[in-house]
Design a protein that fits this description.
single chain; alpha/beta; five-stranded mixed sheet; 9 helices; 15 strands; elongated
């Protein structure tokens, strides 16, 4: 069973349907944290979780939960093209809109439209785009939302501004998380880790240098507060290759030995 951020109509729901191709039962969860926790508690086999958007960057809740609150592995990824649409209850006109609601990511991805056409309209955040669409369907017409085209179909809404995102090339990277790591090695693998280092000059450079000296290509680095103490950070790193490759295994082991917090998040095909 595959968990996803619900309800039906979210981009996570769309990603779950496309990734599973109908070969797996789907189960919705109200939050990203709940979906990840369900896998950690073995209530579902795996979950598909948004981790990064090409416009808004990383999904911090996903990073933090994987680092601090769950003992899971990334076993795969899926890239979904995102089409943002401003939608309203049927018959609603632009001048009727008093509130626009959506998940924070779509709000940020449609900043140009919102600042130009709805500068004085109140913005309210929702747990998901589908929850926002449900609110619009139940409203008196004063509420609009930004969501996927499938949400308009599911909840009987009119799309007032189609494809209203700031950038045409908008995509979200989803990861599959499971209780056990992926054991397959392919020709196109990446490995994800997270670690923390002492706050000393050169500490981060020394950790990254261990990868560079081994000829390993680092494709991403992201920092997040460690939450225990001001000024302490963890670093999420993606590299090309699989931990089953000897060079990568020994390089990551050296990184582990030179950090006070280290977590292997998985090797997987992309």
């Amino acid at each position: 069973m595959l968990g996803y951020l619900g309800p039906n109509g979210t981009f996570s729901h769309q990603a779950a349907e496309e990734w599973s191709r109908g070969g797996e039962a789907l189960r919705e969860y109200p939050t990203i944290y709940a979906a990840i926790s369900a896998v950690d508690k073995k209530e579902t086999d795996r979950a598909i979780i948004p981790i990064e958007n090409s416009i808004e960057g990383s999904v911090n809740l996903t990073l933090d939960t994987l680092a601090f609150d769950a003992d899971l592995y990334i076993t795969g990824e899926y890239i979904l093209h995102i089409s943002q649409n401003l939608m309203v209850k049927k018959g609603t006109k632009k001048e009727d809109i008093k509130i626009i609601t959506s998940h924070p990511q779509p709000i940020g991805q449609c900043s140009r439209l919102l600042s130009h056409e709805f500068a004085d309209t109140k913005i309210e955040f929702a747990d998901s785009t589908a929850f926002a669409a449900k609110r619009v369907a139940a409203s008196d017409g004063a509420v609009a939302c930004i969501a996927s085209p499938s949400s308009a179909q599911l909840y009987g809404l009119d799309i007032l501004y189609p494809d209203c995102g700031d950038e045409a090339n908008n995509s979200t990277r989803f990861v599959i998380v499971e209780k056990e790591p992926c054991m397959k090695v392919t020709e196109r693998d990446k490995t994800s880790i997270v670690f923390a280092i002492d706050n000393k000059p050169g500490s981060l450079y020394n950790a990254i240098e261990l990868l560079a000296k081994s000829g390993i290509n680092m494709t991403k680095i992201e920092s997040r507060p460690m939450k225990r103490e001001l000024g302490k950070y963890v670093f999420f790193i993606d590299i090309d290759g699989n931990i089953d490759e000897a060079g990568i295994y020994f390089a990551l082991d050296k990184v582990r030995q030179n950090t006070f917090f280290y977590k292997f998040l998985g090797s997987y095909a992309y």
